[in-house]
Design goal:
The protein is mostly helical and 166 residues long. It is 67% helix and 0% strand. It has a domain of 112 residues.
Length: 166
């Protein structure tokens, strides 16, 4: 029964972790590559309609790219769930590799007015997304391996002599 409850919990926590990873991925691209902070601070002269159009259409395209990246990452996530891998380094590496592969698979950048040549931002967004996923769902991966349970040897009774070493 406990394993069934853990499985049901994983079915809720893993999608929440993926959503957190997608949000972190999009935040790195928006604030890093698009430099939206400079635009909002007024350092770049942009009309309000241009800014709205960029945010509306660009966010839609970015969401499609992020979903493609995380579709590739799902392979590594399923592998980690099956083998109960809980290392943050695994999830960060999985995020970076899957973000790069997802960006290469999607690749709509050749026909856009502003070509996306920011592999540094793609890998950085994968690193951030992998870490966000680990913070939400990766640290407790594996529905069959409980978190925090340690096997403890039974205590020896008082006055008992330990067995001789071989």
């Amino acid at each position: 029964m406990e394993n069934l409850l853990r499985l049901l919990l994983r079915l809720v926590v893993v999608p929440l972790g993926i959503m957190a990873g997608i949000c972190a991925t999009m935040a790195v691209i928006i604030f890093g590559y698009w430099r939206i902070g400079d635009v909002l601070a007024g350092a770049v002269d942009v009309q309000a309609t241009d800014l709205f159009e960029m945010l509306a259409t660009g966010t839609f395209v970015l969401a499609a790219v992020a979903v493609t990246m995380w579709a590739v990452a799902l392979i590594g996530i399923l592998f980690a769930e099956v083998f109960a891998i809980r290392s943050w380094m695994y999830y960060v590496a999985n995020g970076a590799i899957s973000a790069w592969l997802g960006a290469e698979i999607f690749a709509p950048y050749g026909d856009t007015p502003v070509p996306f040549d920011g592999n540094l931002y793609v890998i950085g967004s994968g690193l951030a997304g992998g870490m966000a996923y680990w913070l939400v769902a990766g640290w407790s991966a594996g529905f069959w391996k409980p978190v925090g349970r340690v096997a403890v040897a039974p205590a020896m009774p008082a006055g008992a002599v330990p067995p001789p070493a071989p």
